[in-house]
Design brief:
about 375 residues; 14 helices; alpha+beta; Nucleoside Triphosphate Pyrophosphohydrolase; 3-stranded antiparallel sheet; 4-stranded mixed sheet; 7 strands
């Protein structure tokens, strides 16, 4: 990607000041995090908005601030409570990072987010985008943000054919953002770029006819708007077939297990124990093997409950849940962090992944539990 000439930069900056900024002030969506200058609320919103649609985030944001209104309250809460409130939002490492960061803020910064970008960058979950966003939106500092929306509009303005999936391209686009940012309106311009990408300069069928920047957009002048940005073709997404045991004891309590809290997509969440089907295994064989390896129990497999299909960020799963009972052994932690026996009502106290929530939904829809119960307690 070539560097902007002084003339091109001046032309774009003028359009941003005279066209884009007024457009944003007139058309900006009324979003709850735009009604506050509280750095904590802005931080939570920015983390939630990563990889997640605005309309999905709004109710989570409102519930989160109602439960954890400040850094100190968040830091004092058990991680399980934080994950439970995050349940269904996905990308659970975000929740773990904000919980860890809140405890550092209480310990080292009197419960306040520091204004210094270098200190922000030392907190868990604070990458370059988050640092720039908090510094700009909460503290008015002239740092340019760069996200997917902004990369898209810049590559269209410049008709750049470079692959935005490459780190080298992202670094060049960050320099473009730094060059084009209006220092006296940094927060407004950052938000205007993102809003333009969200509402007008969309990935497909951009609304160029009403775009305030169409006069300086090279892709528009070439009539090749959807040819940009360039992205390398995605590799095929792995598909996993997984089995889970729904084990019920004589007290109508269900056995659930906690994933290890260190690392992994769903770290720290609770689940119906089980695992990935090995080549050549039947699903009952898979579930029996997984429970021996994970919890040291031998099972008899009963009726099928539900099959769940779910897509995660980097793979898809087909989850087969079967009722089962413990034939021998008592659950212990060979390959899980913890376990619990819980009633249907107590499911609401534990954070689960979306796939396991579908198993819970299926359980709750049963008029009565099958007479296939474990003697375990």
């Amino acid at each position: 990607m070539r560097m902007l000439s002084k003339e091109e930069a001046k032309k774009l900056r003028t359009a941003i000041r005279r066209r884009l900024a007024p457009w944003f002030e007139k058309n900006a969506r009324d979003l709850p995090w735009r009604r506050t200058k509280d750095p904590y609320a802005i931080w939570i919103s920015e983390i939630m908005l990563q990889q997640t649609r605005v309309d999905t985030v709004i109710p989570y944001f409102q519930r989160f601030l109602a439960r954890f209104p400040d850094v100190a309250t968040l830091a004092a809460a058990p991680l399980r409570d934080v994950l439970k409130l995050w349940e269904g939002l996905g990308y659970y490492s975000r929740a773990r990072h904000i919980h860890a960061a809140s405890q550092i803020l209480v310990r080292d910064f009197n419960g306040q987010l520091p204004e210094n970008p270098e200190k922000l960058a030392q907190l868990p979950g604070f990458g370059p985008y988050t640092v720039a966003a908090i510094a700009s939106f909460a503290f008015g500092q002239p740092l340019a943000v760069l996200d997917g929306n902004i990369m898209r509009i810049f590559t269209r303005w410049l008709a750049s054919s470079e692959d935005i999936g490459q780190q080298a391209t992202k670094k060049k686009l960050q320099k473009v953002a730094d060059t084009l940012l209006l220092r006296d309106k940094a927060a407004l311009v950052n938000e205007a770029w993102m809003e333009l990408g969200a509402l007008i300069c969309t990935p497909r069928q951009p609304q160029c006819a009403i775009c305030p920047m169409r006069g300086v957009c090279r892709a528009f002048s070439l009539k090749k708007m959807e040819a940009f940005p360039k992205k390398r073709k995605k590799m095929s997404v792995p598909h996993k077939v997984v089995g889970a045991a729904v084990i019920v004891n004589r007290k109508n309590q269900f056995l659930i297990a906690q994933r290890h809290p260190e690392g992994g997509l769903l770290a720290g969440l609770w689940e119906f124990p089980g695992g990935k089907q090995a080549p050549g295994e039947t699903m009952p064989e898979c579930i029996r093997r997984e429970l021996r390896e994970e919890m040291g129990v031998n099972l008899d497999i009963g009726p099928h409950l539900v099959t769940v299909h779910h897509a995660y960020s980097h793979f898809t799963i087909e989850l087969h849940a079967y009722f089962a009972k413990i034939r021998s052994g008592r659950p212990h932690h060979l390959d899980c962090a913890d376990h619990a026996w819980v009633t249907r009502e107590e499911f609401d106290s534990y954070p689960f992944s979306k796939a396991d929530l579908e198993i819970i939904r299926a359980i709750r829809q049963l008029p009565e539990l099958p007479r296939w119960q474990s003697s375990g307690t």
